[in-house]
């Protein structure tokens, strides 16, 4: 008797049911890891709920004042030993220039949110294939920061006992910081490590530098986290080492996204699979930044 070959019909019209196997489950994971075009309403809802949850958890962390002040003293002593304890000098010098410190107060209070949301929207519109991976980096970074707030309460320099730092928001009566003035009771005062101003601004800067095609936009991408570092120190909201904590959180965020998607966000296709480029194929450059 000869061998009999059974050929199954192929193609999208095939309706033959297959049992659920390990291969089937692997296919589900593959689909989840494949970037798809994001849905605007879902992303707005996700960002709103995520930020609300982040704020709720951050502010629900017990305000361990004694431990936070003790940790601040340790950070300050450590920076002195390393020769990088210049926060107080920067704080006093910048505070002496009224227009500059007032501008930094508003920078600290607003750009942290405005630019991050702006970069997310830009990714959504211009790089939908990379959006989910980039958003995953940001969310993972923020989630890890919450662990830092819980495990390592830290007072900012402006709240140190005998630190002689200037709380620039209180002194100059500018609107903004949830950690100063009448709003300080609504925010956890001792959630300074890591600095998400640095984590988020560096995410924005690296994203713009990797994907933007306009040279001055790429340059601004590099300058933004550097300027943010100066601002968080000048306003006495963070130590230099808080910024290091923010960088470490972002590094873990990129690592997790790399493991899940198989590539860093900028290395993924600009458009999701199955989405045609709006320009002719000959002129399309899907993998180049726009």
Automatic annotation (TrEMBL):
InterPro entries: Aur1/Ipt1 (IPR026841), IPC_Synthase-Related (IPR052185). Its main location: membrane. Keywords: Membrane, Transmembrane, Transmembrane helix. It is found in: Membrane. Residues 74-255 form the Inositolphosphotransferase Aur1/Ipt1 domain. Coiled coil: none annotated. It is a multi-pass membrane protein. The chain crosses the membrane at residues 40-57, 106-124, 131-152, 190-212, 219-237, 243-261. This is Phosphatase PAP2 family protein.
């Amino acid at each position: 008797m000869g061998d009999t070959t059974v050929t199954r019909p192929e193609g999208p019209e095939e309706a033959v049911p297959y049992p659920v196997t390990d291969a089937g489950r692997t296919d589900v994971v593959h689909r989840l890891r494949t970037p798809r075009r994001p849905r605007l309403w879902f992303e707005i809802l996700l960002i709103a709920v995520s930020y609300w949850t982040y704020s709720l958890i951050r502010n629900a962390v017990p305000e361990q004042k004694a431990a936070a002040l003790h940790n601040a003293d340790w950070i300050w002593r450590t920076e002195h030993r390393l020769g990088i304890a210049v926060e107080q000098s920067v704080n006093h010098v910048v505070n002496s220039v009224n227009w500059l410190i007032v501008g930094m107060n508003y920078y600290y209070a607003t750009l942290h949110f405005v630019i991050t949301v702006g970069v997310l929207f830009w990714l959504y519109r211009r790089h939908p294939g990379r959006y989910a991976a980039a958003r995953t980096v940001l969310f993972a970074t923020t989630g890890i920061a919450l662990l830092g707030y819980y495990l390592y309460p830290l007072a900012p320099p402006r709240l140190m006992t005998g630190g002689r730092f200037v709380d620039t928001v209180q002194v100059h009566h500018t609107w903004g910081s949830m950690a100063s003035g009448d709003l300080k009771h609504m925010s956890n005062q001792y959630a300074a490590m890591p600095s998400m101003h640095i984590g988020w601004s560096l995410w924005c800067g690296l994203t713009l530098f990797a994907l933007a095609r306009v040279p001055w936009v790429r340059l601004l991408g590099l300058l933004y986290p550097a300027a943010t570092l100066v601002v968080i120190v000048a306003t006495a909201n963070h130590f230099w080492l808080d910024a290091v904590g923010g960088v470490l959180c972002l590094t873990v965020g990129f690592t997790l996204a790399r493991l899940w998607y198989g590539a860093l966000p900028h290395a993924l296709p600009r458009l999701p699979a199955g989405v045609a480029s709006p320009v002719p194929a000959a002129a399309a450059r899907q993998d180049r930044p726009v």
